[in-house]
Amino acid sequence: MTDPVRPVFHGFEQIPLREYAERAYLDYSMYVVLDRALPFLGDGLKPVQRRIIYAMSELGLNAGAKPKKSARTVGDVIGKYHPHGDSACYEALVLMAQPFSYRYPLIEGQGNFGSSDDPKSFAAMRYTESKLTPIAEVLLGELEQGTVDWVPNFDGTLEEPSWMPARLPHLLLNGTTGIAVGMATDVPPHNLNEIVSACLRLLDDPDATVRDLCEHVRGPDYPTTAEIITPAADLLAMYETGLGSVRARGTFEKEGANIVITALPHQVSPSKVIEQIATQMRAKKLPWLEDIRDESDHANPTRIVLIPRSNRVDAEQLMGHLFATTDLEKSYRINMNVIGMDGRPQVKNLKMLLSEWLEFRTETVTKRLKHRLDKVERRLHLLEGLLVAFLNLDEVIRIIRTEDEPKAALIARFQLSEEQTDYILDTKLKQLARLEEMKIRGEQDELDSERDRLITILGSKAKLKKLIKDELMADAKKFGDARRSPLVARGAAQALDETELVASEPMTIVLSEKGWIRAAKGHDIDASTLSYREGDGLLAAAKGRSTQQVAFLDSTGRSYSSAAHTLPSARGNGEPLTGRFSPAPGASFQALATGDNDTRFVLASSHGYGFVTRFENLTGRQKAGKAMLSLTPGAKVMQPAIVANAAADRVVAVTSAGHLLAFPVSELPELDKGKGNKLIDIPKAKLGTERVVAIAVISPGGTLAVKSGARTMTLSFKDLDEYVGSRATRGGLLPRGWQKVDGLAVE
């Protein structure tokens, strides 16, 4: 019979890669969630923060001590409790010392600990010194009073606390942020007085709802004085679900003509805001602003001065635009995901957070009282034995001097415990003087009353609750302060349209024959007197305002548009429109118009067709333009004529043969685009030689200037009666000598 084959062990275990990877990733994620990224609800600290504070307390760096080099603290932390990178540990220490990062800093730093402009500009740890702040006592004060579980450190040579016995809900006071595996946390900071007030309400009324608690906790309270503008209903929903967002907005004030920004939202860098505003100014998107200065100093941590171009600039409108386009207004994500008392991560609402913390506090206080009661009873037990020895001093001395085993003899003679006997034997002779009896009995009386008080409190839920409330109120009185972030009901800021940012000024837009464009301030500009490049001259000019759009029509009938305030100054020759737009090859620009969106124009071609359209139809796609006027072969685009009153105005068209026709504007259709209807009749036989030279729209009371060479003939609205006819008719013939018309102008 053969022996069964035994498996051979090769010193390693073979498991499927999928199973190994899944197990390894799960172990890693659990470690990150529980031991790195998420805070514990009880003390509101992550492990690295807890270890830093504990190590500093072990180094004696309390609020009243002299600070030590931060490198000493970091060395102790990573050498004894937290075997990770020193730079990450030091950064966590710095964060707890920055008053612009923590609402209630736990560490007081000396040296360069960064600035709100650049929080990570802190000096190396070998240069800075640090110690704990007074409020850190809230976390450490009860540490040695039997309130926490102690666990071995990473190498088993020391013990460290599993959590801190926090006397206040630190999680909500300073808040926290963290990114774990598959989850994150974002708890905002709050005001200490408001949180304590909500805790007291919950102790008195355990059935209080989140809405009830929000009467006390009105919203987050960041380290800066920027306004919180989130509506109260949204804040309530955030506290009811543990999820949401908070919007904060910087504050400003007027100083004469200048605008001074005095506060920025939490974690917003002044230099970044200044750069964002300066970028808009360089891009000519903030023409209201002349300059921006940073006057921040130690006395005024945030002071950004905006200098408007004129006193007429609306500060509220301008700041509203900046709130919408820069970090002057910022939104913060809220995700109150923390490790609860059951050791599991969960998103909790405000009541769950405070209720669980009060359970934690109740348990901590109970442990503290029991620990103290045990110490009191042990001391009473020792004093009782010491008093027996004092009352039988001669006998005790005889036994100690004569007996080989004095401990056993004392126990047998006076019915003492071993602990009492050891204490008697360790007592010095000088403590057995006559006056010591009074001290022993006095201490016994004090400890007896303290024991009774402790037993009473531990035996009564009402008294235990009152003790917790009294301690909460005492800490609130000692460490509480006024709210910094005011809650203001405001709507979200809206960015202004580019034209709204421009001061409304009269402008004359000038187009040259070669397609060069420029704009001059004012309406009293004679475009014909401007200088032009060699071989170029005036083609058309239009009067408008800097807040309006300008439309250009090319020889194919396409329309292009640009903002008037972006056009180059008339002090130079301007710039070619081909640099702004992309017309078809060979196309040239032939006309321009400007006005408000509802302004109406008559568009016409040299072949005598046209229609009325709103100016808005001429604007739109800027680079490639849009098809607007359909042209018959060989036709040219006429300069558009503005319509003041469609019910009373007349359209005037004149041909190169001297035929002039006036008819009501109402006879023309209003179209978005197209060819239009016939304005004036040009016989087919003459289409090659006769064309429409110009069109105009004249209102009652106006005059029409007919230009022929250097001569001008003026016709009043009534004078045109003899040329009035139906649309598409031939019209009347101008007098001899005026039949070669160069153009029309309405005066």
Q: Please summarize the sheet with the most strands.
A: 4 strands, antiparallel
General form: elongated
* Low-pLDDT windows of residues: none
How many helices in DSSP terms?
17
Provide the CATH architecture of the largest domain. 6 Propeller
Query: Helical amount among residues, as a percent range?
Result: 25-40%
Number of distinct beta strands: 35
CATH class of the largest domain: Mainly Beta
How many domains? The number is 5
Q: Which percent band covers the strand fraction?
A: 15-25%
CATH homologous superfamily identity of the largest domain = DNA gyrase/topoisomerase IV, subunit A, C-terminal
Overall radius of gyration: 44 Å
Taking the alpha carbons of the first and last residues, their distance comes to 129 Å
Strand order of the largest sheet: 10-11-13-12
CATH fold-type name of the largest domain? Neuraminidase
Coarse structural class: alpha+beta
pLDDT averaged over residues: 92
